[in-house]
Design a protein that fits this description.
The protein is mainly alpha-helical. The protein is built from 4 helices and no strands. 57% of the residues lie in helices and 0% in strands.
Length: 90
């Protein structure tokens, strides 16, 4: 199982969490196609949802650093997606 504390300490930006989520989704062999087409799309959708941000967020926000509570929420949601294998609805 993933050490969530280590993940939260290693990753900092919105971009980091989206990339990490996409990599973990690919590694877990998740299926996409119920609203998103790729692991990257799914990770972005879930990360933005967890942070209450719009899907059309300008790219300049990708380097924003997440607060500790945001990090916990994002990691929890991404790991839940892997555990439950339930696709995000867009």
């Amino acid at each position: 199982m993933t050490d969530t504390t280590a993940v939260e300490q290693a990753l900092r930006t919105l971009r980091d969490y989206i990339r990490w989520g996409a990599s973990r989704f690919q590694e877990a062999g998740l299926f996409f196609g119920h609203g998103t087409a790729t692991a990257l799309d799914e990770a972005a959708t879930l990360v933005l949802h967890a942070l209450h941000l719009p899907g059309d967020l300008p790219g300049t926000y990708m380097d924003a650093v997440l607060a500790p509570d945001e990090r916990r929420q994002v990691v929890g949601l991404l790991l839940r997606r892997i555990k439950e294998c339930k696709p995000a609805a867009t």
